[in-house]
């Protein structure tokens, strides 16, 4: 495959297809997350679950803020200065927000596990405290900022002749980038395994409870299954494909001599395609809020009913 073909194919996908897709999800996510934020921050923080869900909203809004910068840059506007802003700031904010959201998903699964499966234990009562949840939320943001913000600080080299984000990083910056990428991948897989364990345990516990009482609880069972399935489905669909290719792609950036031009091109295409699925998460998280948080669900339905009544009264 010729170098011309690589560049041409790359430009079709990244400079024509992706900007359109990101614009669509940006518009949808702006409406959905604006509504979610408006509802959630009128709801009192009465449980650990609400604490984690509110922090997920914050992470999604920060992640959403980076999309317009990417769209404008991919369309070829803004020149090298915009590319510098994307490499140094908005890309770092994107990954910071994404992995913070992933961590809160794992904390939600852990909170659900202790509340449902181990509800009588002292650990459960401790983790259910709002103050403890707020402390874990602050710790999560602090740890993620510690690992991610140096990627912005260490992107401090002069503009190279052949532009790339890695070329803007110092030697320490490139090593930190590789280390933080592996750290983030580790965060993901720990979160994934934790969620599989927690929700498998919850499903088994709920099934045994229904079987023990021997009564028709099909409605409650379906509701529980929807709650479990919604979070796992969003997590697997959005994040698993990206993290399967994340490690080889990072290695192809840091050790170019070990990868052919064609292999680097393929890894880049796969990375961009699966990264879009991760970005789609900001549109799907409101589904999690609806199924997992009764207060959010009731508030949303009340707002919809009120709007319908207002329209009927006007007519």
Automatic annotation (TrEMBL):
The keyword Cell membrane applies. Keywords: Cell membrane, G-protein coupled receptor, Membrane, Receptor, Transducer, Transmembrane, Transmembrane helix. The chain crosses the membrane at residues 20-41, 48-69, 89-110, 131-153, 186-207, 228-244, 273-293. One of its GO terms (cellular component) is plasma membrane. It is found in: Cell membrane. InterPro entries: GPCR_Rhodpsn, GPCR_Rhodpsn_7TM. One of its GO terms (molecular function) is G protein-coupled purinergic nucleotide receptor activity. PANTHER family: P2Y PURINOCEPTOR 14 (PTHR24233:SF3), P2Y PURINOCEPTOR-RELATED G-PROTEIN COUPLED RECEPTOR (PTHR24233). Belongs to the G-protein coupled receptor 1 family. This is Purinergic receptor P2Y14. The lineage of its organism: Eukaryota, Metazoa, Chordata, Craniata, Vertebrata.
């Amino acid at each position: 495959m010729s170098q011309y073909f690589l560049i041409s194919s790359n430009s079709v996908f990244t400079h024509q297809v992706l900007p359109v897709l990101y614009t669509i999800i940006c518009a949808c996510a702006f409406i959905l997350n604006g509504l979610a934020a408006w509802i959630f921050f009128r709801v009192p923080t009465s449980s650990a679950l609400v604490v984690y869900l509110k922090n997920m909203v914050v992470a999604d809004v920060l992640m959403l803020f980076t999309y317009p910068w990417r769209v404008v840059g991919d369309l070829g506007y803004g020149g090298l200065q915009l590319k510098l802003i994307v490499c140094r700031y908005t890309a770092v904010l994107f990954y910071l927000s994404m992995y913070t959201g992933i961590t809160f998903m794992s904390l939600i699964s852990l909170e659900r596990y202790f509340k449902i499966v181990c509800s009588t234990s002292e650990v459960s009562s401790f983790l259910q405290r709002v103050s403890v949840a707020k402390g874990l939320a602050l710790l999560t943001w602090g740890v993620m900022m510690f690992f991610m913000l140096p990627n912005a600080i260490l992107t401090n080299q002069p503009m190279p002749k052949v532009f790339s984000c890695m070329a803007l990083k110092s030697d320490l910056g490139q090593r930190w980038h590789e280390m933080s990428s592996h750290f983030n991948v580790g965060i993901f897989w720990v979160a994934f395994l934790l969620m599989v364990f927690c929700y498998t345990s919850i499903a088994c516990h709920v099934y045994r409870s229904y079987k023990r009482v021997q009564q028709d609880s099909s409605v409650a069972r379906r509701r529980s299954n929807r709650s479990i399935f919604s979070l796992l489905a969003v997590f697997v669909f959005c994040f698993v494909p990206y993290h399967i290719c994340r490690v080889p792609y990072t290695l192809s950036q840091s050790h170019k001599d070990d990868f052919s031009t064609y292999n680097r091109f393929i890894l880049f295409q796969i990375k961009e395609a699966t990264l879009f699925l991760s970005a789609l998460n900001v549109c799907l998280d409101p589904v999690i809020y609806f199924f997992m948080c009764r207060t959010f669900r009731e508030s949303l339905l009340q707002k919809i009913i009120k709007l319908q009544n207002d329209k009927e009264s006007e007519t």
